[in-house]
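Quick review question:
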């Protein structure tokens, strides 16, 4: 197995490290990571990693790892070994992954559409990051759009949740919403959702002159 270790206090410094996978635990599944996206969102994970616990999702392995961490990514993986009867080798999943070639997860809360990694070190973190979609029964999955999903999916959900919260509060009596950094994926997701779910709210975007045409 290989992992990309990034220095936490100097994220421009990274190294590719060979690690021993070891024996798969009795209640675990081993994933081979096929693809993940790298965006400004992942830089945010690294910059605020200590304050928000992002470095805790995927601990580094091996000697000489003090001060190093693994940046989380969103992507796709395939089951290559399974000690869970409900999950078969060859099955593909989508979710939160390390910058690495492999990941062991402990599936729980199993359903046809997904599962949650119940590994002890991940339980203090938000369950949003610990949930994996099983692509064979995932209505969001489009084989032709896997790249777009990795890039836009996580932050579209953030925009969706912002709109849901604001609408549940009747937009706090406001008639318009101002979106700063309007070219960002979160802002675009919020604007799109608000257009459909809160059409009476006027949407105003702020962006740089160079991004006006794009936005």
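Suggested answer, residue by residue:
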């Amino acid at each position: 197995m290989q992992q990309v270790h990034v220095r936490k206090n100097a994220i421009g410094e990274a190294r590719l490290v060979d690690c021993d996978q070891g024996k798969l635990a009795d209640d675990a599944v081993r994933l081979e990571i096929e693809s993940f996206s790298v965006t400004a969102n992942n830089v945010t994970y690294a910059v605020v990693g200590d304050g928000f616990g992002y470095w805790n999702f995927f601990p580094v392995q091996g000697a000489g790892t003090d001060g190093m961490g693994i940046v989380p990514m969103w992507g796709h993986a395939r089951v290559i070994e399974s000690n869970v009867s409900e999950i078969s080798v060859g099955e593909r999943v989508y979710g939160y992954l390390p910058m690495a070639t492999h990941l062991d997860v402990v599936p729980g809360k199993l359903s046809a559409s997904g599962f949650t990694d119940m590994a002890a070190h991940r339980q203090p973190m938000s369950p949003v990051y610990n949930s994996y979609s099983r692509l064979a029964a995932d209505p969001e999955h489009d084989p032709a759009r896997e790249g777009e999903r990795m890039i836009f999916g996580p932050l579209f959900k953030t925009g969706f949740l912002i709109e849901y919260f604001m609408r549940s509060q009747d937009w706090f009596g406001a008639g318009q919403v101002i979106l700063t950094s309007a070219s960002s994926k979160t802002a675009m997701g919020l604007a799109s959702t608000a257009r459909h779910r809160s059409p009476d709210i006027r949407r105003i975007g702020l962006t740089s002159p160079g991004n006006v045409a794009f936005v």
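Why it works: The longest strand covers residues 72-82. The chain has two domains: 2-141, 144-211.
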